[in-house]
Design goal:
397 residues; Growth Hormone, Chain: A; disordered C terminus
């Protein structure tokens, strides 16, 4: 007999038009408004401190996230994901209030560590939950729409931070970050997990999935991209100054705009034609972008590089995340999303460090040329280790 169950009996169904999907996108938007404020306001509020002190405080967030994300993935898959979203949101607000109450670098360091762990909780839980609200046939489009929330935040969050800090104070800017995170928490609390994890009672910690097997190889491909982004963020302003290419901020404006547009396009194309059709050209485009940047002699060439690079990152980011969700059972999405986001943390740390040694020995141009090899390596890994296994078809759970 045909299944005649009503929608009420089946429960809420995934839809990109649902209120909860919209609230999830709004939540990640406001969360990254706060994050963008912290990116600018933490180092500028410590401008009177030694460079090495600023470096330790700024880098503490990424280090904390990098080492705790596997544990966060296990937590998110072991009990109600809504709980971990709330804990992460509240802890992030505490971190921002702590920044605002004391600009002492060593006090701030402690709150940066809290912020790093809390960010892993909030973003990993929300990623796992929002995946349950996206229909499988529209997975790329839905993920692109969701990720556009943080892309828009980064277009104005940093500007807002500078304006508040200069017009009022650095402390006030941190409190604005706390308020933005509060809005993210209020929005996120209205989102429910349609595919909650199974009970992990009786499963030893050793047997739990610290690194997702379905996500690790796609995450390595994504790491080839994030490492180049980390390198660009570390040295692009200095390179622009050396070559007299004009305002380096224009690079990030063009890059961010292209990234936003690519997230929508890449998701829709990937849903229709397969993830590989997007990933391979995007990796090649990132290599081209870096080579153009390395040889830039005019601002126009620099901005063309930015546009290509933004589209390339958007294509790989949306497609790899969609592919990971395709391959991963709902009950294990916390570990999968944690493994995926580790690529951001590692890329930021390794990218700046890797290029720093090369730049010291050669030049900025040589450094950008060298890291252009990483997306090409990513193409090899993808073709031999990712596309060969799944052929872009969803996993059979």
């Amino acid at each position: 007999m045909a299944d005649r169950r009503t929608d009420l009996e089946l429960g809420p169904q995934p839809s990109l038009r649902s209120l909860e999907f919209g609230l999830a996108t709004l939540a990640i938007h406001f969360y990254f408004v706060g994050y963008a404020i912290a990116i600018v306001n933490v180092p500028t509020s410590l401008s009177s401190e030694a460079d090495w002190v600023v470096g330790i405080v700024v880098g503490a967030l990424g280090v904390a996230g990098m080492f705790t994300r596997p544990l966060v993935g296990i937590w998110v898959d072991s009990s109600a994901r809504e709980r971990w979203l709330k804990i992460g949101g509240v802890a992030t607000i505490v971190a921002f209030v702590g920044y605002g109450l004391s600009l002492d670098p060593w006090v701030m360091l402690g709150f940066r560590l809290i912020h790093g762990v809390a960010m892993g909780m909030f973003t990993t839980a929300l990623l796992a939950m929002v995946a349950s609200h996206i229909p499988a046939r529209q997975r790329g489009l839905g993920i692109g729409m969701y990720q556009s929330g943080n892309a828009v935040a980064q277009l104005y969050g940093s500007v807002l931070a500078v304006w508040v800090a200069t017009q009022i104070s650095h402390e006030a800017a941190f409190f604005v970050g706390a308020a933005a995170t509060g809005l993210a928490l209020l929005s996120g609390m209205r989102v429910h997990d349609l595919e909650p994890p199974e009970s992990q009672a009786g499963v030893s910690w050793r047997e739990r999935e610290w690194i997702s097997r379905t996500a690790v190889t796609p995450a390595i491909v994504f790491l080839m991209m994030t490492t180049t982004v980390g390198a660009i963020n570390a040295f692009m302003p200095l390179f622009a100054e050396e070559r007299t290419l004009g305002n380096a901020g224009l690079y990030y404006t063009v890059w961010g705009t292209a990234l936003l547009g690519a997230r929508f396009l890449a998701g829709a194309v990937g849903d229709r034609y397969g993830r590989t059709v997007v990933v391979i050209p995007s990796l090649a485009a990132q290599a081209l972008s870096l080579l153009l940047l390395a040889n830039s002699e005019t601002q126009l060439v620099m901005l063309i590089s930015a546009a290509i690079g933004g589209m390339a990152l958007g294509g790989v980011q949306v497609s790899v995340m969609s592919l990971i969700v395709d391959r991963t059972a709902p009950a294990r999405r916390g570990a999968a999303m944690a493994t995926y986001t580790i690529a951001w943390d590692v890329g930021a740390v390794v990218g700046g460090g890797l290029l720093g040694f090369v730049v010291d020995a050669t030049s900025y141009s040589s450094g950008f040329t060298l890291v252009a090899l990483l997306p090409l390596l990513g193409m090899v890994i993808y073709v031999t280790r990712v596309a060969r296994v799944d052929r872009d078809t969803p996993a059979a759970y």
